[in-house]
């Protein structure tokens, strides 16, 4: 993360908007939407600047598997009885994990039943390898102002 610190200062909101909507390498709108325009494979970004700090936005861009928005983390769980489940985490507490297993199937698993839990990597490419630093800085400025 420290090598991207320079991207937290400045940035051109209009250029960042262009990166979000039109950059062919980043392809943000394939998975993310702003005000209903874009995909839904990733979380919607309306108001992301109010929910996340600049540092958190940067982290989500350069290390997308480090933290997940609720409803977008896919996890594989091995239970103590040897069976396993995989699904989307809908809720996680100290007591249980609630998984969405299919369109309508939801299972709540007690933390005491879990032998091993592993988050599967995000399909989002790390933007630090896709965008130039200036593009990343502009994108952060754009997202921060949503």
Compact overview of the structure:
By secondary structure, this protein is α+β, with helices and mostly antiparallel strands. The protein contains four helices and seven strands, in the order αββααβββββα.
Would you state the CATH class of the largest domain?
Answer: Mainly Alpha
Strand order of the largest sheet: 6-5-4-3-7
Separation of termini?
23 Å
Q: Provide the CATH topology of the largest domain.
A: Cytochrome Bc1 Complex, Chain D, domain 2
Radius of gyration from CA coordinates:
17 Å
Task: Output mean pLDDT.
Answer: 95
Please provide the ordered H/E string of secondary-structure elements.
HEEHHEEEEEH
Shape: elongated
| Biggest sheet architecture | 5 strands, antiparallel
Strand content: 15-25%
The level of helicity is 10-25%
Q: Do you know the CATH architecture of the largest domain?
A: Orthogonal Bundle
Domain count: 2
Sequence-ordered SSE layout with sheet pairings:
Layout: H1 13-22, E1 33-34, E2 37-38, H2 48-51, H3 54-62, E3 74-79, E4 84-92, E5 96-100, E6 106-110, E7 114-119, H4 133-144
Antiparallel strand pairs: 1-2, 3-4, 3-7, 4-5, 5-6
How would you describe this structure to a colleague?
The chain folds into two domains: 2-68 and 123-144, Cytochrome c-like domain (Cytochrome Bc1 Complex, Chain D, domain 2, Orthogonal Bundle), CATH 1.10.760.10; 74-119, Roll (SH3 type barrels). It has four helices and seven strands. The protein has helices at 13-22, 48-51, 54-62, 133-144; strands at residues 33-34, 37-38, 74-79, 84-92, 96-100, 106-110, 114-119. Strands 6-5-4-3-7 form a five-stranded antiparallel sheet, with no helix packed on it. A two-stranded antiparallel sheet has the order 1-2. It is elongated, with a radius of gyration of 17 Å.
């Amino acid at each position: 993360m420290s090598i991207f610190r320079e991207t937290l200062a400045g940035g051109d909101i209009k250029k960042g908007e262009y990166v979000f909507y039109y950059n062919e390498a980043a392809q943000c709108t394939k998975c993310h939407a702003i005000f209903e325009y874009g995909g839904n494979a990733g979380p919607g970004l309306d108001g992301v600047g109010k929910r996340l700090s600049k540092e958190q936005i940067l982290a989500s861009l350069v290390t997308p598997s480090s933290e997940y928005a609720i409803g977008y983390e896919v996890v594989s769980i091995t239970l103590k009885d040897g069976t396993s489940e995989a699904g989307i985490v809908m809720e996680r507490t100290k007591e249980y994990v609630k998984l969405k297993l299919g369109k309508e199937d939801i299972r709540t698993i007690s933390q005491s039943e879990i032998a091993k839990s592993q988050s599967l990597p995000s399909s989002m490419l790390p933007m630090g390898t896709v965008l130039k630093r200036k593009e990343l800085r502009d994108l952060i400025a754009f997202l921060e102002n949503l």
